[in-house]
Design goal:
Elements lengths: L3 H21 L1 H16 L8 H6 L13 H6 L7 H14 L12 E4 L12 E5 L2 E4 L4
Antiparallel strand pairs: 1-3, 2-3
Length: 138
């Protein structure tokens, strides 16, 4: 069993990147975890704990109240899903620095199906599946 912060991180990975896992493998989950850890390292701007970073309003859509993923990632049956169990392992290993930062220090990402106002071509660090990763905070 993992602690609360790592559980929230694993649920965020599942909610944000499980669809990409089928095409990109573990890299999809690792990259989202990298962004969350990079935000944590930036200090209080995004939150002071993994939970604060993951649950900060309007940052990770799977936690938005209107998002259909939210009931899924909050469900107790999630812990029976082998992919969620793998998300827990990813959360633990990325947090401990066992797995590398694939995103080259990115602190933002979005799906290729949208283009947020903050997206800047010159700040792209990685394209992975249907996600684009950026380092916006310098």
């Amino acid at each position: 069993m993992i602690d609360y912060d790592l559980d929230i991180l694993a649920r965020t990975l599942y909610g944000e990147a499980r669809g990409e896992y089928t095409t990109c493998g573990p890299a999809a989950l690792i990259a989202v975890a990298n962004v969350i850890l990079n935000r944590l390292k930036r200090g209080g701007k995004y939150g002071k704990t993994l939970t604060e970073v993951c649950l900060k309003s309007r940052q990770f859509s799977c936690w938005d109240s209107e998002d259909p993923n939210r009931p899924l990632i909050q469900g107790e049956r999630l812990e029976e899903d082998p992919l969620f169990i793998f998300c827990q392992q990813v959360a633990l290993k990325v947090n401990r620095g066992i797995w590398p930062d694939l995103t080259r220090n990115s602190d933002h990402y979005h799906a290729t199906s949208c283009k947020p106002s903050w997206a800047r071509v010159g700040k792209i660090r990685l394209r992975l599946g249907r996600h684009i990763f950026y380092k916006l905070d310098e």
